[in-house]
Amino acid sequence: MKKFFLPFLFLVGIVWVIFTQVPLPLHNNFSLSASARQPNNSSDYEVWAIDQADSFDGTPLGGNLYVLSGDDRDFLRGNAKVEKVNLAASAKSKGFAAGQKPHWIAFNKGATYAIVGHATTAQVYAIDANKREVVDSILPPGLPNSNSHAVYPSKDNNFVFVADTPGQRIHKISTNYEAPGGKIFGEVKTLDFNTSETKTALGTPTARPVVAVVDDAGKFVYVTFADGGVAIANVETLTIAHIYNKDEVTFNGLIAAQVGDNFITNAGNANPEIADFVYVYDNKSLLENPSKRPDFIKVPQSGNDVHGVVVVRDKYLWQLNRASNTITIHDFKPNPFDANIDGSNKVRAVNLVELTDTALGPDPAPDLIDTSPSQEIAFISQRGPNPISGNDPAFFNSVGATPGVGVVQIENDGKDAKPTYLYKFDNVVNGVNIGDFHALAVRK
């Protein structure tokens, strides 16, 4: 009996090792890489992404919100739960006018509310994050030539900044997330850039802001412009403190974000023959001496049509290149303005990750990006075959094949990326796929 029992145990042991240790094929022909660090079974969280095309009820450009929830492993394996919210219908159910082309989403501190801006109309929504309902809406002044292209709440939850691109102004909207009756939005103050003095300082024929992002201290707001240049304005007084002209900071500034003591903006364009750039500003020196224009570093950007930006583990700056379907990864020093750091190493590109013909599809057209709370995964909004914003018909830079949310596993402590899964969400109307994802944020 024993001579059969021991070989049997040996065989069971081999089978056990095989079935518990070897990665098995998963959705989209994806298998968890044996060389990558496997994420822990982290707590659940949510990824919010918006298809800015027609709503499910047919409302033109009314938009549909997708809320994906699960833990890291759920997202990697394609098992995240998906909820759909008709944004136009939600707004109308509360007596608000439906906005068109919901283009930007950001959470307040605490992630109790999501703020949504629209690229065609100027409505700004406040969405109760737990109920998934639009509970307040505001229309900043400036009709008919206005929109709310990008929205960013302050860290203290006291206001939201709105970039009104065609109106050539930004708005500061007071917010109270504890207000009775759900009246989130309050007083609106406006900074108008459509003046001869501002346009002369920028060196541009217009002063169309793309984004307006407040620093963590709530003291200054960084504003990028479609035709070039960056303005830094005082949050309290809504006056311009400093301007960088179009020759210093090139056209079509797209993103702004704080990283430690520094601030980042970038500039991208569809023409592969024109360079894209990332800019790093010494925000600490600005806070210490507001009268001195902060130093900044200009870094050429590999890839074409740079757009979304995220910093991974405070070490690496990831930039999405929408037209070339790549991620440029930069090594970001904690203090790039330290005189002891050699210039070539201050913000250095260390990797270029190809996304074409991966798990994300043949042509992802990646737009915006955010990371999971564990920073083991990055999420990417992907454009559709019929984009309704940001496309240059000479280059088809915003044209993608697979609208939805792409999942990328973060590897090598943030220095590398592995495309892993695609949550593809088509929006077919009269036989045409109009799905077009832009806004994306992780609720943390």
Record the SSE blueprint.
Layout: H1 2-21, E1 45-51, E2 64-70, H2 72-77, E3 81-86, H3 87-93, E4 102-107, E5 113-118, E6 124-128, E7 133-138, E8 150-153, E9 159-164, E10 169-175, E11 185-192, H4 196-202, E12 209-214, E13 220-225, E14 230-234, E15 239-244, E16 253-259, E17 262-267, E18 276-282, H5 283-288, E19 296-301, E20 306-312, E21 316-321, E22 326-332, E23 347-354, E24 366-371, E25 377-382, E26 404-411, E27 416-424, E28 428-429, E29 432-433, E30 437-443
Antiparallel strand pairs: 1-2, 1-30, 2-3, 4-5, 5-6, 6-7, 8-9, 9-10, 10-11, 12-13, 13-14, 14-15, 16-17, 17-18, 18-19, 20-21, 21-22, 22-23, 24-25, 25-26, 26-27, 28-29
Task: Please describe the structure with a list of short key phrases separated by commas or semicolons.
10% helix, four-stranded antiparallel sheet, mainly beta, 444 residues, 42% strand
Most strands sheet? 4 strands, antiparallel
Sheet-strand content, in percent, reads 35-45%
Number of strands: 30
Mean pLDDT across all residues, rounded?
A: 92
Shape: globular
Total helices: the number is 5
Secondary-structure class: mainly beta
Strand order of the largest sheet: 3-2-1-30
Q: Could you estimate the helical fraction of the residues in percent? A: 10-25%
Give Rg in angstroms. Answer: 23 Å
Give the low-pLDDT segments.
Answer: 1-35
User: What distance lies between the first and last C-alpha atoms, to the nearest angstrom?
Assistant: 58 Å
